[in-house]
Design brief:
Blueprint: H1 12-18, H2 24-37, E1 44-50, E2 56-64, E3 70-75, H3 85-92, E4 96-99, H4 111-116, E5 121-128, E6 134-141, H5 149-183, H6 185-192, E7 201-214, H7 216-220, H8 225-245, E8 249-254, E9 257-263, H9 269-292, E10 300-317, E11 320-326, H10 328-343, E12 347-350, H11 351-355, E13 363-368, E14 377-381
Helix pairs in contact: 5-6, 8-9
Length: 382
């Protein structure tokens, strides 16, 4: 058997000595350095994976000799027209070898950069995961002789282990990011830690924010589905970022409604209410700025703030569960949001919320009947 300088084909001995390493940058750098120890003259290594993310399409981790590995993220549509050797490798299903001194600069987008840095030989290796994601590796060398036949054999021998490791890391990343996108930051952590049984709930205290677009149905009644979707996304862009920026958690998009919470740690009721209040005001300011820019369709937002207790966790039936907050106080927040239209106000606050935020100087609008709730509620506004 060929001696690879102590490098196990599966890499198990090396990684076991290093302990459990979860940082893909460290893994890529360690891989390239161990291959160099095995006399494979790698001066540049790249791991590329597709992502399943709302804003990012793919990432690359690039290691070059003498530097630490670094990650580059690519937005959807970025470089869509660029010709890449790894794309060609996926199209053909074969490894793509580039002898750079004889490769025209316009053959692939990266050729001029590689030549400028002194690379001589470049290999692109496609990896297709079980879920269809198209990933891969590329390696380059400055060795004047390029990669030898034995160097390529080493890469072929270790590739199954590399592909398996890449799949594990990529799928775990997809699982984390997709669950976070659809259920929020804390719920996704709880779900992935095993909190997946119906009825597993926490009782929490929180400032509750409920927002909706005023007159959404009439605004969109004559719009196409695409235009209506674009409008509601613009509304979300006004309301959601201020919540995240102030430590809140958006739990639900309910048509044009947004349900968010600001959890109150022990003895920090006022702080959670201050964060919720600031998020609401910032959301309204963003809406005003958007409307002032003069788009064809203007919209208004109604936001309700309340403080109370909720059950936070899994509800549903059978194998279909939802991670949300439920309880009287959530219902009350939704009903107060409904008053925004009836009273023609942008921001309304419950008595419980006002009690924790008195120094802001909210004024009372009197007591109001809230649908489905037995007692009238005193309502406040800035």
């Amino acid at each position: 058997m060929t001696d690879f300088g102590g490098l196990s084909p599966l890499g198990t001995g090396y990684w076991a000595k290093q302990g459990e390493i979860g940082d893909p940058n460290i893994i890529l750098e360690g891989l390239c350095l161990r291959l160099r120890d095995a006399a494979v003259p790698i001066d540049r290594g790249v791991s590329a994976i597709e992502l399943r993310h709302a804003e990012r399409a793919a990432n690359e981790r690039i290691w070059e000799i003498g530097t630490a590995a670094r990650e580059t993220l690519y937005a959807h549509g970025h470089g869509a027209t660029a010709r890449r050797p790894l794309q060609e490798a996926h199209r053909t299903g074969k490894w793509i070898f580039l002898w750079l001194p004889g490769t025209p600069d316009d053959a692939y987008h990266i050729v001029p950069e590689l030549k400028a840095k002194g690379y001589v030989h470049h290999v692109s290796i496609p990896v297709v995961l079980l879920n269809g994601m198209r990933n891969g590796f590329t390696f380059a060398t400055k060795n004047p002789m390029g990669f030898s036949a034995q160097d390529i054999t080493v890469l072929q021998v270790v590739l199954p282990a590399l592909a398996a490791l890449q799949e594990i890391l990529a799928v775990h990343r997809v699982l984390r990011e997709v669950t976070r996108m659809y259920v929020g930051h804390e719920p996704h952590l709880r779900i992935l830690s095993g909190d997946v049984r119906r009825g597993e709930v926490l009782r929490i205290r929180a400032a509750i924010l409920f927002a909706d677009m005023r007159g959404y149905t009439s605004l969109t009644s004559s719009m196409s589905e695409g235009d209506a979707t674009e409008l509601v996304n613009q509304y979300y862009d006004c309301v959601v970022p201020p919540v995240h920026e102030r430590g809140g958690e958006v739990l639900k998009f309910i048509g044009d409604g947004v349900l968010a919470i600001f959890r109150a740690e022990e003895d920090k009721d006022t702080e959670s209410c201050q964060r919720a209040f600031a998020a609401a005001r910032a959301g309204l300011e963003r809406t005003a700025a958007r409307n002032a820019a003069g788009p064809d369709t203007q919209f208004r937002v109604g936001i309700a703030l309340h403080f109370g207790r909720t059950a936070y966790g899994n509800v549903g039936s059978g194998g279909r569960l939802d991670y949300t907050v439920i309880g009287r106080d959530v219902n009350l927040a939704a009903r107060v949001a409904g008053l925004c239209g009836a009273l023609d106000r942008e921001l309304l606050v419950s008595a419980a919320f006002n009690e924790r935020l008195k120094r802001v100087g909210l004024r009372s609008l009197g007591r109001h009947k809230l649908k489905g709730l037995p007692e009238d509620e005193e309502i406040f506004e800035p």
